[in-house]
Every structure is written in C-alpha cells, then in structure tokens.
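Morning!

As promised:
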Amino acid sequence: MRGGGSGVFVRLVRLALLAHPPLRREQDGDEMAEAAEAAFRARWNRSQARAAALGFRILADLVVSGVAERRRTARDRGRGGGMGSDGWADVRVAFRVLRRSPGFTLAATLVLALGIGANTAIFSAVKATLLTEPPYPEPDRLAFLDLTDSSTARPGPPRGFPWSYPKYQALRETESLPLEMSAAYARRFLTLTGAGDAAYLAVEYVTPEYLRILGVTPVHGRDFTADDDTEGAPLVAILGHGLWQERFGADPGVIDRDVTLNGQAVRVVGVAPAGFQGLTGTADLWMSVCGGAVLTAPFLVRGAQAHWLRVVARVAPGTDLALLDQRVRAVGRAIEERYPDTDPTVVRGASAGPLAQAFVNPQARTSLLVLAGAAVLLLLVACANLAGLLVARASARGRESAVRVALGAGRWRVTRTFLAEALLLAVAGGLVGLAVAVLGLDALAALWPARFVEASWNVRAAGVDSVGMDPVVVGFAALVAMGTALVCGVVPALAVGQGDPAARLRAGAAGGRAGRRFLDLRGALVAGEVALALVLLVGAGLLLRSLAELNRVDRGFEPGDLVAFDYFIPRTSPWVEEEASFHERYLERLRALPGVESAALTCVPPLAGHCTITLAREAGGRTWSEGSRPAIGVHYVSDDFFSTLGIPVLQGRTFTSEDQTSSRAVMVLSEAAVRELFPDGVALGRTIAIGTGLTSEERGPAEVVGVVGDVLFDRPANGIMPEAFVSHRQEAGGSTIVLRTRGDPLAVVAGARAALAEIDPGVPLFGVRTVDDLEAAASGDTRIMGLLLTVFAVLALVLGCTGVWAVVTFAVARRTREIGVRMALGADAGAVVRAVLRQGVGVSLLGVLLGGVGAWVASRLLRSLLFGVGPDDPAAFATAAAIVLAVATLAAWLPARRATRVDPMVVLRAE
Amino acid sequence: MTHPDPETFLPLTPPEYHVLLALGQEALHGYGMMRSLEEKTAGKDALLPGTLYTTLARMVARGLLEELAAPPQPGADARRRYYRATALGRAVARAESARMARLLQVAAASRLVPEPR
C-alpha cells in the first residue's frame, strides 16, 4: 500500500521537526511537514528507491537545519540573560548565576559533596563486602560444605563445624554427590627459619584440588598433585606471592630449593599469583594436608574426631544447590554413623550452601546496612537543605520568574533554569563527593580492618586494597548526584509554579508576600530535615548508650599501661622440652627491662578469650551428672599474673615457686566460680576437678588455694564466666606475655624482642596489642557504629538547624516592613518577633514529632547492635528530642532577636 | 527610503540564491518554491524543506523577502504563507548573478568551464 511508506515518513518528519526551535515549529512546522511529504510522494510515484534516498536527505536536512537554527537563536539571544530557549544556554546562564554568588555555590557544593561522598563510600564498602561475588571463575558453582554440630544439652540451631580428614575422605568416596571437584583446607601456623629473621607464617594446609577449584594457577612452578597428598610423600610447598617477594627476593630460582619450616626441609614447588591469599585471606604459603600432619601432628590426618578442615567444592554445571544441600545432609548422617562421637549428646550432620554466603558475618551485614541507611538519611537532609536554599533564591527571583512566565516562557522553561542550576551544583558536588568518598573509604578501612578482611574476598591486586573505587561505584555516585539534582531542581520549580504570576508581579513591588500559611514549602522541607536529624540522633544515642553499658561491665583488672604479645617455641628449638624454664627465664629478662614494672605469662589476655573452656566434674565432694556440668574457663598463668593485671586476691594465696610439677596440684578460682561450684561460699582448702588435664580422672582433684576477683575474659556483651587458674608449671598452656609498663607500653616491645632473641633467635614474637586494641576488638561493631552514627547525626543536626535559621531569617526579612510600621505606630515589636519565632519553633516541633515516629521504626533495625538498652529506650528518645529542640530553638531565636533591632525610621524611609 | 548597498549581502549562501531564483517575479509559498526550483533547474538543484524555511525566515529578517498579507490569487491556499522578493532582494539577486558571471569569465579563461555539447 503506497500510503504506508509515506505514513512512516510523515511520522519521521514530525520527529525530525523536534530539532527546530519551538517558535519555528509553531510557525512553519505544518508547512514543512506538508512540503516534505509532498516532495516525497512525488518522487515515490516514480521510483521508490529514489524516494527513500530523498526522504533520507530531507530528514537529515531537517535535523541539521534545526540544530543550526537553535544555535543561531541562542547566540542571538543568549547575551540577554535568562531567556534562552536552548538547553545549553540554560546551563551557561546557570553557571554565570552560580559564579556570581560564590558563597552560596561553595556552601551548596560542600553540603552535596558530604551527602554524595558518604553514600558513595559506604556503598563501596557494602558492594565489596556484601554484594561482590567471590572473585573465582563461575562463582555460582562454588559451594561450601559444613559439618553441623548441635547438642541435646545446649539449645539453639546447629552450628557450622569443621571436618576431620577421615570424614572428608568418606565424603569424597560418596558417589551420589554432583560434585566436580572438592577440596579441604585449614589455616595453621609455621615457623620459617634460615631466610632472614625467624618468621611466624600462616599456612593453609590444602588437598590437591584446592587451587584448581578456585581457578588459581601458580605463576611459577606447578600446582599440587594427588601424589603430594599421601602419607609419606616428600614435603612440598607453594609460596605466596608476598612471601616470595619479601623473603626470597622474587627469585624464580627458589623453585626446587628447600626451605626450613618448623625445622624440617620442605621443597618449594610453586609460587602463587599476586594478591591470592586463600579463602582464609591471610595465607602466606600452602602445603598439602598430609605434609601438614608431618610438621604438626599425625593425628590431624588419622583422627576421625580431629575436626579442623573446611571443605569447598565446585559443583557440576546446572546443579541446584538446594538439592546438593539435601544430599549432603543425608551423606552427613551416614558419615556420623560411621564415625560416631564419644559424647552421646552431640548430634552431627552436614550441610551445603553457596560459597558466597559462607563468609558474610551477620553482624557485619547489619552494621553495614544500618550505615548505608544512615548515609541515605544524611543525603536526604542535604538535598532538603539545598532545595530549601534554591527555593529561597527562587522566591527572591520570584519577580523575574513571574515576568518570564507572563511573557509566555512556560513553566517548563522556568523549571529548566532551576534544573540547570541544580545540575551544575550536583555535578560539582558529585566530583568533590568522589574525593570525600575516597577519604571516607580510607578512614573506614582504617577504623574497621577486621570487618573488611573477614567479609571481603581478600584478593588484593598488588598494592591496591579490595575495598576501593571502581566504575560501578563511580556510576553510583553519578546516579546519586543526578537524582539529587532532579529532586533539588524540581522542588523550587514547584514553588515558582504556585500561584498566579500576575498576582506575584503585583506583589513583587511590595516585597512578595506569598501567603502566610504556617507550613509553606520551605517550612515543610525544614521539618523534614529536623525529623531525619532526630532519627539519626536517636540511633547514635542508642549506640552510645550501649557502648557506655558495655564499658560499665566491670573488667576486673586494672587497665592502663599494659601491652600483650605472643611468641611460639617451634619444635626445632632446644627449649622445646623445657618450655616452663624458657618461660621463667624470659619473664626474668623482661622484668629487668627498663620501663617494665611487672611481667606475666598466660595464653590469652583478658577480653580476648579463654585458654580453654571445660566442664567441672567435682567440687568439694559434689558431682554433677553428665549434661548438667557447669562450664568453667581455664587459664594457665605465671605467678605474677594477678599482680601484673591488678586482679584483687580475696582469699588465700596465688601461685608461688612451691607449686611445681612434683607438688600437689593447686588451683585458684574466681568469685563467680566459687559461687557456682561452692554454694556455701567456702572453697579454700577444698578439692576441685575439672576437664581432662591437670585434674583428670587418673590424676585426681586439685586443692583450691586462693580466690580472686572476677575478670572479664570474654566480650563485655557475654559477661563474666566462672574461671579457674592453674600454674603454668603444673600444666603447660600458652605463650602470651602481658607486661605492665611505666610509660608508653609500646616502647618496651623492641626490648622484649631483643630479650627473646637472646634466649633463642628462632622464636618469633608477634601479635602486639595494647588494652585499647583489646577493648576495640571486644566491643565489636558497637563502638565503630556509635562513632560513625554520631558523626552523621551531628552533621544532619547542623544542616537541619541551618535550615531552621534560614527559614526564620527569611520570615523576619519578609516582615521587616510590617515590624517597622508597627514599631513606628508604637506597638510592641516583640509580638511580631514572637510570632515569627513561634513559626520557627513550630516547624521544629513538627519535625521532632515526625522524627520520633520515624526513629521508633528505624531503631528496631539496630537491635542486634545494642547492649543493655532497648530500641525504644525512652531516655534516648527524650534526650535526642531535647537536643534537637534546644539547638533548633537557638537557631530560630538568633535571627528573631535581630528583628527587634529593626529601626522603624530606616524601614519607613525605604518605602 | 535608502536601500542598503546590495553588494554588502554578497556572497549569498546557495539556499538564499536558490530562493531568489525560484521566486523570480512571483509570489510563492514554500513548497511552491521547491517545485519552481526543481523545474527551472531540471531537477539538478533542490531546496529541502528544513533549510528552505529557516532560510526564508532569515531572508525576511534581512529584508530580502517579504511575506504577503493575503494570498496572491483568490483561489490560492489561504493557510499557506506566501513570500515575494523585495526590491532589495531582486537587486541582491542581480548583484550575485553578476558576481557569478564575472567568476565564470575567469574560469573560462583558465579552461575550467566545459565546452557546451
């Protein structure tokens, strides 16, 4: 049908006509379209191909001439200022306007940069830790297999549990599982000697397919083979890239050379690529599981109940992981039947899930999401603030806008000016915001390293952290900026669009009284800002109170100048059979160091955990049945432990040189232990038997020789536990030193290192931490979140109150004439000022009410981070509301006060 | 009434010249000019609508054309806008043609003009 072709053509012509300026379209558009269609039709009748060619040229000509016309019109009119009918002209005009008021532009840019930057930084963190897939090929085919462990004696869901080597072999032998490859891995520590100072390295013991499953190929040498992981095979290792560079000078010749690990010769067979540190994220090198057993202990591969391995697998393509989980559960039950646990209350099974999920800490997820929410709120406050500023300028330019609208400029064109301004500000804010984001990210990673290490995938390209800027993040920032521009640009346009332009023109001469409604647009914006600020403040308040509650839990020891560090006596050391003497000699040397007041030995410092937790079997003749034995923490300590840490001795004595291996087994108990085990309160001199070590069934109970004050060894949130202390001479424990120093604790570390090397240079020293580090680690995310949320809340409050201040200032300025007249007539100006003040405070009150509701809803999200305070704690709400109202009232009162200084003569003269 | 010097309008852009050629002494509307030019040049030169109408507006602004208040003939299409060359426009057209003729003489002397068949 002939008509069809020209119908399409006409539509295309109409489209192309859009390139022409609106005025031209109005005047000549129809004629152009008719002429085009007529010319096309005439040609079409003769030759369709020629007509198509002509049609194409006509369309192209329409577009090109239209664009040229627009440019010409803009050039002719652009210098007039503000009446551009061209989008680019709007932007240029907006640029000039912004340049003319540098103060406003700077303030607005900074406000936006803050909001955009904060959001971008946190989004980057969220993306790296929660959204990024594991950086291995086909990550959706990677599964994490756990044994599960639950006990009929202990409530709660089954917990993930490591595998033992025989059980893992049983898993591998199962044929019904849709697994392409599977591998087991676990982290241990080794001492490297003979290549520089003795070093304490993290090693991942792995089965041969580990690297292949992760798609990682050694850059030098070879991968593990099945032969490497058999009992009796020669010891081989693959070095990590960092280790290879630091200790072996990045020399490829290290392949096929031997290194000394734990005193044994191990052949280097490969070097891993840069940035790969295994699934634990911290591996310095890799060895086979069987090799690991040789270096550490044979029972690691033989013991069916030695649970120490994690299992990762690559599933066959197209496998449904839920199905895999079901199958693995069945296999888990079968394996348990084959290797039952000695404890009848334990119920073991197995489960499988996507690898991505296995590594996300639920609390980290909550914290990050809360933070993301807070950042969004801050951005909204920033947007509201900017929109308010733009509305204020719009009202001031109300006359100009009214004139333009009256002259037929059209609401859309007026809106475009505001959009152009908002766009420029948003772009500037976005660029500065990126800089803010980079700084914020660095700060976040510095404050919160543990979270990022354990929750991200730890594949670090050489030199660049895994949490950083990438194109997606930059795109996110751009999106946020554009969205901000849209919101901030449209709002003032709404304000301009209100009302009759003619009325505004008339009112313009009188100063433009656009309605005395209580809640105009600006008031609403400010109320919103105040509300959001309140939400953030309540959140911060709850977290800070939690922190205070956590700090109120009595630690039980004297903080102050304490430092703790670890060391490790390798099997090759001459002291390996005389560890107790080694510890004693080292403690002597340490006490002799200048700056050291006292020194003590333990396995774990307070707040960081227990040496071990076991069950009490018998206390003062009283026993418990299986399943109801009380749990008790155990610590193996030196004589000066209690005095070094400032733990009060309440009854009896602590350990002395009389307590040796040959003498009677003795124990010191904490108050809580006495309360738990000896209800009548008398413990001294009575007997106690716990666990399977010093007071095992064969060796008999120990005597209680002292009672000390409670000490917090676990996180404050978990509270005090009953503790038992054993002398390290009677039962060997760990090798952690705690020093009380005179002056800066870290200053003595160098001396401690030297003293250690004097006794045995092959013993590495590591893990230096102060009380601050211990406290930070123990407080979990509460401290960090409290800090960050407080920062956000303060920023939001400042912005919100700036809004209140601006609204009141504006109101006062608007009614200056009225005030002046009234004062001239002898009336009390204070009444007017009070009315203005009331409006400002009223807006804030509205904001507080709205914010209170919002905070009540939002604070539920914080529940898992709170301690000792509920999400609807009235004190927190009341305090936050009081602070907001106080600051807002001040922000309203200052400009209102200035109104009383209005000189009626000046005002009247200006009429 | 003083006319501006036609020489100041030279050189005309090709579309402007085509418009003046198409119009000649007549009053035409846009499409009519397109047809007129096509006929007069036997299809070798053409005016496309986009360029044409923007050129018309510019030429009116410069005083080379004038828009008719009413259609030239009673039966003509009343919706359309009709244009006619002004005296100035005709003068400019003559001046441009003279300029081109001079150029052609130079070209002929340099043997750039093909021999007519």
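Helices of chain B lie at 14-23, 30-40, 49-62, 87-109.

Hope this helps with the figure draft.
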